[in-house]
Structures are given as structure tokens and as C-alpha cells.
């Protein structure tokens, strides 16, 4: 069991690295460029804040790099202004002054919007102005932060603008990988009939929830890019359509998965009746379909629609599990159909055109045959 758990965690780690290394590379390049500009063009000896700001703006996992850059700049400017003003306060113990400075900076920043990046940067900047002095952490730091923010915006909005469709697809892939892992653990718990394994499967829903949050964040980013970037405008209609579809399907799938795991834990804990014989196979089929949607299908593998005709009726203990698992199956099937709708429509239109061409050819041949018969009759 430990070996299986280690393999799953290692696979998750590899997936996370695969999804984040490009953003990390861009962040590193931006940090180096921000340092270079501050040193060679602004004569700042150690512009660490410029490099740090570029890293903060472009760090992997940030839903919107553009918004993050703006939020950081607003927070720093607010904190520096508050810190400069609090230097005018009368002498008092250092601890009291730091408490007042931090409170004032974060409170004023929260008036703009409850955005953690703004509030945190405002509080930190205000405290740093007092602790390090206005010359080190005041407007000099604000200039460095402006440089880092500008580099972050250039990288995220101009040079390396993400493809909104690719952003959506990557988030969908991660989400379905987590769903597949969730149901893999659930199937293992059913085979072992172990409550502790079932609880692990239920707890793994937290990772699915994190992936769902990432999917919703990716949807927001894709919509924003479709509105504000040239690359996004070229595919804005498809982005809007897919965003609405992914949002609804993702929430429904996560909710039904969580309900199934909770019902499974309760059913195994009661231990009154054995689960339906077909339930484990249904879970394994869900895992395979999730891998297929996530782009991890084996060679020749296709999406398989579940056949419910041969399923025996479940007992009262397992009836709730059956209802939830059927909801998962239905959601997956609808998602697959909606995802392949464009290809199926294109294939259908192509078939219609080919059928029309074949019909015209057949009519022409029939007309030619009639003419040939008439000519033969005339000769006779």
C-alpha cells in the first residue's frame, strides 16, 4: 500500500512540475532582467525588490499574472505612503509603532478591495519603511517594485501571453487527473472493504477541490485574456463557450464525487451488506474515462459509455452510492459529448456533403442510363 501511495504522490509531483516549469522559467528570466535594468539604468546597487517583484508577479500557480502585478504595485505604493506618514508620529516604543504601522497599512489597503496581495504588500511595505528607513525601503523600493511590475506585465501580457484555450485544457487535464486518483483510491477501498482506505479516498477530495479552484481560476484568466489580449480575442467565442461548460461540469463532478465518497465511508462503516458486484468495475471505468479526458489514454483506448442495463438493484445501504456514481457517469458522458461536439458536427456536415455528392453522381448515372436506353430503342 505504501508503494502504491508513493507512486501516486510521485506521479502527482511530476504532473505539477510539468505544469509549472514554464512559468518558473519566465519568472526567473524576468527577475534577472529587472535586476539588470535597475542596476544599469537606475544606478541601484542592490535592487532586490525589483527581482522579488518579478518573481511574485510571474510565480507558478498565480491565477492571473497581470492582476498580480497590478496588485503588488498598488500594495507597495500604499504601504510606502503610509510608512512615510507614520514617521511623523511622536516617539514611542518600537513594538507599538510597528503595530500601528502594520495595522494602518493593511487597513487602508483593505479599503480598495479584499485582495490578499494588496493588503499583505501594503502592511509589509509600511513596516519596512519604518524598520529599514525611507532611503532603503521607501520610494527607492517603490521604484524597484515598479520596474519588477513592468517586467512582469510585459512578460505576461505581451511577450509570453498564454493561450486561453491551452490554459483551459491544462486546468481541465489536472482536474480530471485528480478525479481519476480519487476514484482509484475509492475502488481500492471497496476491494479491501476497509474504512480507513475509504476515508483516505474521501480526504483525497481535497486535492480535487484544489484542482477545481485551479480550474475556476483558469476560467477567469482565460476570460480575462480573451477580453484584454489580442491572442485571446481571436478565440474569444470558443473561450466563452468552453468556460461556461467547464465551470458547470467541474463543480457538478466534484460535488458528486465528494458525496459518493462520503456515502461509501458510511456504507462500509455500517458493514451490513456487501456492495453491488458491478460497483467496483463502474469505478474503474470512471477512472479510465477520466484518464482519457485528461489526455492519458492508452493506445487505442476510447471513451466508454457505461451500460446500466445489466446492473442489479442496490440495497438500501448502497443506494445513495449508486445515485452518486450514476451522477458522476452522467456528468462525464455529457462533458465528453460537449467536448467532442465540434468534431462530431464537422464530421456530420462532411458526411452530409459526401452523401449529397454521391446522390448527384447516382442521379447523373441514372439519367445517362435512361438516355442510353432511349437511344437503343430508337435504333431498334
UniProtKB/TrEMBL annotation:
The keyword RNA-binding does not apply. The chain crosses the membrane at residues 21-41, 70-89, 109-130. The keyword Transit peptide does not apply. It is a multi-pass membrane protein. Keywords: Membrane, Transmembrane, Transmembrane helix. Residues 33-155 form the Integral membrane bound transporter domain. Pfam families: FUSC_2 (PF13515). It is found in: Membrane. Its main location: membrane. One of its GO terms (cellular component) is membrane. This is Uncharacterized membrane protein YgaE, UPF0421/DUF939 family. The lineage of its organism: Bacteria, Pseudomonadati, Pseudomonadota, Alphaproteobacteria, Hyphomicrobiales.
Amino acid at each position: 500500500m505504501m508503494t502504491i501511495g508513493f507512486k501516486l504522490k510521485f506521479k502527482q509531483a511530476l504532473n505539477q512540475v510539468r505544469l509549472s516549469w514554464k512559468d518558473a522559467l519566465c519568472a526567473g528570466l524576468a527577475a534577472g532582467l529587472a535586476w539588470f535594468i535597475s542596476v544599469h539604468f537606475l544606478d541601484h546597487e542592490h535592487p532586490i525588490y525589483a527581482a522579488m517583484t518579478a518573481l511574485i508577479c510571474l510565480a507558478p500557480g498565480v491565477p492571473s499574472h497581470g492582476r498580480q502585478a497590478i496588485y503588488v504595485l498598488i500594495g507597495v505604493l500604499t504601504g510606502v505612503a503610509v510608512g512615510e506618514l507614520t514617521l511623523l508620529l511622536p516617539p514611542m516604543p518600537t513594538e507599538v509603532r510597528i503595530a500601528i504601522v502594520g495595522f494602518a497599512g493593511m487597513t487602508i489597503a483593505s479599503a480598495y478591495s479584499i485582495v490578499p496581495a494588496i493588503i499583505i504588500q501594503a502592511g509589509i511595505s509600511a513596516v519596512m519603511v519604518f524598520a529599514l528607513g525611507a532611503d532603503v525601503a521607501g520610494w527607492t523600493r517603490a521604484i524597484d517594485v515598479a520596474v519588477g511590475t513592468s517586467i512582469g506585465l510585459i512578460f505576461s501580457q505581451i511577450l509570453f501571453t498564454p493561450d486561453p484555450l491551452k490554459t483551459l485544457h491544462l486546468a481541465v487535464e489536472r482536474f480530471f487527473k485528480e478525479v481519476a486518483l480519487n476514484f482509484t483510491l475509492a475502488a481500492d477501498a471497496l476491494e479491501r472493504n476497509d474504512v480507513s482506505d475509504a476515508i483516505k479516498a474521501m480526504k483525497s477530495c481535497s486535492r480535487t477541490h484544489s484542482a477545481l479552484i485551479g480550474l475556476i481560476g483558469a476560467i477567469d484568466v482565460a476570460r480575462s485574456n480573451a477580453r484584454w489580449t489580442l491572442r485571446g480575442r481571436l478565440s474569444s467565442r470558443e473561450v466563452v463557450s468552453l468556460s461556461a461548460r467547464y465551470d458547470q461540469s467541474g463543480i457538478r463532478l466534484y460535488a458528486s464525487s465528494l458525496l459518493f465518497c462520503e456515502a461509501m465511508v458510511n456504507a462500509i462503516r455500517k458493514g451490513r451488506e456487501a456492495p453491488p458486484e458491478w460497483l467496483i468495475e463502474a469505478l474503474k471505468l470512471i477512472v479510465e474515462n477520466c484518464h482519457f479526458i485528461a489526455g492519458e489514454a492508452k493506445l487505442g483506448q476510447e471513451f466508454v459509455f457505461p451500460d446500466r442495463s445489466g446492473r442489479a438493484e442496490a440495497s438500501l445501504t448502497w443506494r445513495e452510492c449508486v445515485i452518486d456514481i450514476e451522477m458522476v457517469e452522467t456528468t462525464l458522458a455529457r462533458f465528453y459529448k460537449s467536448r467532442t461536439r465540434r468534431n462530431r458536427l464537422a464530421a456530420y456536415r462532411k458526411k452530409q456533403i459526401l452523401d449529397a455528392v454521391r446522390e448527384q453522381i447516382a442521379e447523373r448515372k441514372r439519367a445517362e442510363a435512361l438516355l442510353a436506353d432511349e437511344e437503343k430503342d430508337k435504333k431498334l
